[in-house]
């Protein structure tokens, strides 16, 4: 470990070991405070961003994969919220399972940014409940969260050309896979469209979030929301990997690959119907619909009951309009005011495409059952 707390586990050439002087002259080394990774090489780094109560370094894992060929520098980050795990697996598989021998550009892979939260399996930085994802771009001499954010941002975010930050729903809820992106920014919109999710929610995001601050600093960035905290959800991870591959194709990092079209897509912007339906009664929730389902106006989304299941006390919650369930409660208990379901309206075309997809899925699962 060097003085600044960084520690390179070992440089692993991804080339066949040939000379790099000629064709690779245009690709540059990736440099950060305390080290460099040359074209055609990759490195696993443990980089110090803070210190524990015992005075030991708090180090984040970083994998830099620098391709032989010139191209954009792309960051992939996860676990800014320490208990949001799906993205960790996405970033690890891109960094370590994919073949990058022909990579054009550089990948900066940050699978676990909030190490203290990850160790405690909590969303926030313990113990003052500070949100790392409201602390970017960070500042020296400021709070512990901002100091950590500053180390991450200056070394591994600012040098990049684009970025993808992976999240899940908050503990106790789940999200269908979707992108959040400032669609008014052309490069962010290109990134969002290339990710090939069905749903994109527009907006610049709260200040202090990695995607907003990186975008403002000239590094167009999207957030990917997928599933729930505390789990690896294989189907969602696979779909996110398809999205990453599609982005790397769109921006020329893997020029032989192609951009993936998700079949249907809807952009939820300021003009779209959307609402977080909240509980008006405390109780135990019987949820009738899951994430990604289409519900019709007047359908019962869930009912809220008391411990005695007394008929007269059951509260039915109906869909105020026909739409898609983007996020939904998983932990079936609520106080009045707690969110139950994130419902977004769809255009008639999108509704037709979604219904067709659901019909196909149902018939495929019937076929599987028959086999
Ligand atoms: Zn999050």
TrEMBL record:
Entry GO MF terms: hydrolase activity, acting on carbon-nitrogen (but not peptide) bonds, in linear amides; hydrolase activity, acting on ester bonds; metal ion binding
Organism of provenance: Natronolimnobius baerhuensis
Region spans: Disordered: 1-20
The protein's required cofactors: Zn(2+)
This protein's UniProt keywords: Hydrolase, Metal-binding, Zinc
InterPro entries from the UniProt entry: AstE_AspA_cat, N-alpha-Ac-DABA-like, N-alpha-Ac-DABA_deacetylase
Hydrolase in keyword set: yes
SUPFAM superfamilies reported in the protein's UniProt record: Zn-dependent exopeptidases (SSF53187)
Succinylglutamate desuccinylase/Aspartoacylase catalytic domain location: 70-249
Source taxonomy: Archaea, Methanobacteriati, Methanobacteriota, Stenosarchaea group, Halobacteria
Keyword flag Metal-binding: yes
Protein name in UniProt: Deacylase
